[in-house]
Amino acid sequence: DLVSEKAALLAFQASVGRYVRWNQSSPTPCSWQGVQCSNNTITELRLPGSYLSGVIPMGIFGNLTNLRTLSLRLNSLSGQLPSDLAVCTQLRNIYLQNNNFSGAIPDSIFGLNNLVRLDLSQNNFSGEISPKFNNLTRLGTLYLQYNQLTGSIPDLSQLQSLDLFNVSYNHLNGSIPSSLRNKNASAFIGNSLCGGPLLACSGEASPPTSSSGGSSGNNNLSGGAIAGIVIGSVVGVLLILLILFFLCRRKSNGKTGSVDTAPAKQGAEVEIQGEKRESGSLNSAGGGGGGGAAAAAAAAATTAATTTAVAASNRGVNSSGSKKLIFFGNAARVFDLEDLLRASAEVLGKGTFGTAYKAVLDMGTVMAVKRLKDVAISEKEFKEKIEVVGSMDHENLVPLRAYYYSKEEKLLVYDFMLNGSLSALLHGNRGSGRTPLNWETRSGIALGAARGIEYLHGRGPKISHGNIKSSNILLTKSYEACVSDFGLASLVGATSTANRVAGYRAPEVTDAHKVSQKADIYSFGVLLLELLTGKPPTHTLTNEDGVDLPRWVQSVIREEWTSEVFDPELLRYQNVEEEMVQLLQLATDCCAQYPDKRPSMTEVTRRIEELRRSSVSQGQDPQLDMVELDDGSSRQTN
Ligand SMILES: Nc1ncnc2c1ncn2[C@@H]1O[C@H](COP(=O)(O)OP(=O)(O)OP(=O)(O)O)[C@@H](O)[C@H]1O
C-alpha cells in the first residue's frame, strides 16, 4: 500500500538520494518528482541524473511491488543490485545505465518475466551472462555494453522479440551464438568474440564456404584419395605463393604499397603500417611533405562546421616505423587509428594547445580529438608526460583514452562531453530561449570542478592545472562537471601558453609558462565569480575601463550592492541567496591577491559541499525536471 511505498521511497532518499527533494510531510508520494502512481500505487520511479550515489539497501524494492518502470540511469549508484528487485514482477522497463553497479547480474532479474527493456550498460557488472536471460521472453531491448562481463555469450534463442541488443566492450570470448548472428558487429566489438558479423572463429569455416556442401553419407575416403588431395593442395599453395612472390617483386619496383593492417599488439596497442588506406573518405592522399591529415584538419578548421575526416599525417611514421594509437587503462575499449582516420569530424574550436574536433566513428562512438600544436619536447619526454596524464582517473576529469605520436602529428583522444563547455552554457544563446541555469546546477558544477582540481592537486605538491577556465570545464550528459586540458601545459612551448586568456591569471603569474596550485585556485575563484555573475572574465563588463572580474565584484561589494553582482537568472531563487553569498565569499577568498591567503583546494571543496548541503536541506530550489521518454532518453523542461 501507499504508506509502505512512501516509507520505502524515504528510505531510498535517505540512503542514496541526498539531493532528491521529496517533501516528507506531503500526504502522498505520488506528487513527488520522478514518482508516478496509478490506482493508488507507485508504478514509476524515474530519477535520471539526480546525483544518486551509494548502495541501494535491501527492503526498498521489496515494497514497491507494482513498479512498471524503474529509471535510475546516469547516477553514481554502486554495489550490487538488491535481490528484492525480484518481487517487482510488474516491471516492464529497467534503465540503470551509467552507474557504478558491480557484482553479478543478480538472479532476481530473471524472474521479472514482464520485462521489455533492460539497460544495464556502462556499469561494472561482472561475471557471466546467464542463460537464464531466456526466461525473459518478452525482452525487446537488452543492453549490457561497457561492463566487465566475462565468459561466452549464451544462446538466447528464447528471446524471440529481442530487437536491440548490445554487449560490446566487455571481456567476453568465444563464438557468437547463432541466435544473435543477425545483429551488427557494433553489438559485439571490444571483446574477444568471433563468428557471426565478426571474423569467423578459428576452426570454423567462414559462412559462404561452410554451406552444407558435404554429403551426409559416408565420409570415409580412401588412403589414395587423401594422398591425392594433400599433394594437390600442397602444389596449389606453392603455385599461389610463387605467383604472389613475383607480383610483390614487380610491385616493389613500382611505387604503391598495399594496405596492410597489422594485428593488434599487446592488447591495447594497435599498429598500422603502410602508406595507403582503402577508404576513400580520407582526403589526405595528395600534397607532399607534412601529411594529409594536417591538410585535412586545416581544411576542416577553415571550413568550420563542414564535416571532413580527422586525419593524422599518413606519412608520419614514428621512430619504430609504425603508426600506433596508444590506449590508457581498459585495454578492451579499443578502436584503431584507422577508425579514427575514417571518422567524420567537426571542428569544436581552437584553443591554446591546438584544435579540438568531434569525431564520429563508424561504429557510432563519439570521441573528442585534440591536435596539439607547438609540442616542444622530445618524443621520450612527451610519452613520459602523457602517460602521467593518462593515468589520472577521477569522475570529474575528462578521461584521456588514447594518444598518437608521430613527428608531424600529435593527437589526444578524449571522451566526448555531450553538454559542451561551461563557457558555452553560461554565455551562449542568452535571451534566446535557452534554459536558465539554476542554482542547484551551478553549485553542482562548481563542486564537480573543485573535486577534479582537488584530485589533480592531491597527486603531488608540484602538480597543477595551469589553465583553469570555463571553456575547460566540460559537462557530461547529466551536467556533471569534468575538468579538461590538465597536464597539457607542460607539453607545449612557451609561445602557446603565453596566449592564455588573461582574465583568469593570478596577479603573481607574470610568466604564463610557470604554473602553481595557488595560481589554479585564483583561476578557480574567477570561475566561481563567472558562475555567480554570469559574466565572462574577459568581457569589459559594465565598466568602460576593462577592470577584471574579481576587481569589479570587489567594488560592487564595497558599495554594498552585493545582490547586483549576481546573475539575474539566479535572482529568481531568492531562498538560496544566503548560499550564493557564501559562494561569493569563497570566490573572493580564492582571488586573494597574495597566494598564501588563498584556501587550498581541499578547503574549497569542503566549503562548497557545506553550502550546498544547507541549500539542499531547505529543499527549495527547483531542479531542472527531466522528462523521460520511453526509450530511456530524456529532455529537460524547466
Ligand atoms: N572532450 C571534449 N568534449 C566535448 N567538447 C570538447 C572536448 N574538448 C574540447 N571541447 C570543446 O572544444 C572547444 C575547444 O577546446 P580546446 O580545449 O581546444 O580549447 P579551449 O578550451 O577553448 O582553450 P584551451 O586550449 O586554452 O584550453 C572547447 O570550447 C570545448 O567546448
Can you walk me through this structure?
By secondary structure, the chain is an alpha/beta fold. 27% of the residues lie in helices and 17% in strands. The protein contains 14 helices and 26 strands. The chain has helices at 2-16, 207-210, 223-253, 292-302, 337-342, 379-391, 422-427, 439-458, 494-497, 517-533, 549-558, 562-565, 577-590, 601-618; strands spanning 35-38, 41-46, 53-55, 69-71, 76-79, 93-95, 100-104, 117-119, 124-128, 141-143, 148-151, 164-166, 171-175, 192-194, 270-272, 308-309, 323-327, 344-350, 354-360, 366-372, 400-405, 410-415, 473-475, 481-483, 625-628, 634-637. The strands form 5 sheets. An 8-stranded antiparallel sheet has the order 15-17-21-22-20-19-18-16, with helices on both faces. The longest helix is centred in the middle third of the chain and has 31 residues, at 223-253. Adenosine-5'-triphosphate (ATP) is lined by residues 348-349, 351-353, 356, 368, 370, 398, 414, 416-417, 420-421, 424, 467, 471-472, 474, 484-485. Adenosine-5'-triphosphate (ATP) binds at residues 348-349, 351-353, 356, 368, 370, 398, 414, 416-417, 420-421, 424, 467, 471-472, 474, 484-485.
